[in-house]
């Protein structure tokens, strides 16, 4: 009997051994549960990670930082804008990893991408890949977007003919999948026409949290060393992506084909040779950075295509559908967008062009406001790499490997920074008014060296889709529409909605 009691005590103590971390440093935090920390609701899939971070943000409104435990790992939620600035920009060299990879020494192939990668891999990828998103390359890619936008209008017309009510989250996901097929792979996926393609399956599967996926994340967070060889991504995701990209590479003989898509851009990057540059991690004895070299092999190339597909698919479809949702519930704003589209397109032969999209300032304001109310990524995450780093604003010292979180969704909906945050007011982002938005209170695409590299491409795709719909149609709430959609508690990195976003589509 005594033996079993001792075993239970040992198990309990092991699961709670780190839970004095924030108390010792005088940092407030919520109550903990052994092994699960303060994150039990997310592990049970009753709250997304963004929901948990937002809840933590609201728990102690007078604090600049709040403690959090993801499993047994101490983390920190930053509430103060000056500290957020410090983490993202001023002291970036102390916080350059995102901390999404639990075991940096054992990284699965598809996570060696620009979004997940850490240290030198991230730095060298960023330097080389950022050139793929230049204005000239984006403009060359725009005809691919125009073709899909025109097809979206045809599908929208069919929706009207069959009653007009459709789930815009699904419709814009199909549009985005077609776009990524064209802009990423140079392929005509025909997903908009309802074809059940492997691309559409893959887009759904990446963000679908099955039991296996949830258990893998929980196991790696609670017992990181024991489960270091368990992949977060399911085998079928990696296998499908490797096979799809390899097929395209073989058809092109592993050489750029002049198609202006993302795979072509990556092949151009590879033609430049290995990734070479100054290390962000290693120093010579004299204190100068070492020079590092990383081969840009097939798997590293495929990993970049994977994140182009995954990040572009879910964020663009969520943002565009939610913007249309808000315009449906705010018809006066929709009318402003209609007028702007009509006026601008009239100057461009009623064609959706790259230059026309750039001129639509009110549409940009509506997009920015939708991203404020419901950012597709509700939090930013960074990991400290410096032993005994002291946060000057609060005089709290943290260890290296401690993860800090910037609560984007909470900041965007805080009345301290945005009056009447529950209201859709695009004018907040007029040239005059956006000057008054505190720096680092609005972070839909991050900030600093790790801000979203594909920002302009994402905006271009999104705007073309919105213009394609509103050039010929108007959106209204459907009988089953909810003014405030229900956020999906099972979402992981990218936010989603329970039941989609049904709207009624009518011809203008």
Précis, in short:
The chain has 508 residues and is α+β, with helices and mostly antiparallel strands. It has helices spanning 2-16, 21-24, 40-43, 49-59, 81-90, 119-129, 135-161, 168-185, 198-206, 211-222, 235-251, 262-271, 298-329, 331-346, 354-359, 361-373, 408-412, 455-472; strands spanning 65-70, 73-78, 165-167, 275-283, 289-294, 380-383, 389-391, 396-398, 403-406, 473-477, 502-507. A hairpin with a 2-residue loop joins β1 (65-70) and β2.
Mean pLDDT comes to 89
Per the CATH scheme, the topology name is: Cytochrome p450
First-last Cα distance? 77 Å
Largest sheet: 4 strands, mixed
Strand content: 5-15%
Number of domains: 1
Secondary structural class:
alpha+beta
CATH architecture: Orthogonal Bundle
Q: Give the beta-strand count.
A: 11
- In one word, what is the shape? globular
Please report the number of helical segments.
18
Measured as a percent range, the helix fraction is 40-55%
Strand order of the largest sheet: 1-2-9-6
The string of secondary-structure elements, in order, is: HHHHEEHHHEHHHHHEEHHHHEEEEHHEE
User: What Rg is obtained from the alpha carbons, in whole angstroms?
Assistant: 23 Å
The parts where pLDDT drops under 50 for at least 5 residues are none
